[in-house]
Amino acid sequence: MMLPIIETDRLILRAPRPQDASAIARYLNDFEVAGNLARVPFPYTLADAEAWLRTRHTDMAVEDANFTIELKGRGYVGHVGFHPGPDGPIIGYWLGKPFWGQGIMTEAAATALDWFFEASKAPVVYSGVFHFNHASLAIQHKLGFTQTGRSWLLCLARDAEVEHIDTQLTLGVWKARRT
Questions:
Q1: Phi/psi at 157 (nearest 5 deg)?
Q2: CB 122 within 8 A of CB 88
Q3: Which end of the chain, N or C, is surrounded by fewer C-beta atoms within 10 Å?
Q4: Mean pLDDT of 21-29
């Protein structure tokens, strides 16, 4: 499936491109960002970004869709995407630290979820946050995610198993909140 380009008033969501590598490396090579993510090592290098980008294709399945987040007039600021999980699709996201606290991720994730629920047959999307990531948990609550439990998840940047708050968002809750 060809990933669309989606625009909001402030944002452009599009497929990642090889020329995004330097911005990805710059923002993920910040422990305050990488330390909140499960699958991102620290330090994070240009080679890491280039290797990850080589795994992205323009015809990825809906459950593997990844959007670059561009702030209009500012360029690349972060990422929101989906990947298959053991129970169903998982949404993950991150934002470069200079862009925190501006509502960008809530807007980007809501836009991506609108697209995902329309494009997929999934009745639920899973996610979660490390127990100390209050800002990300607040975003999920705004979007309608509910806590389903706690688990332990490997954080590559911390090289440790970290307590994780597990969340989910059902299609029914999403539709009810969007009307």
A1: -65, -35
A2: yes
A3: C
A4: 98
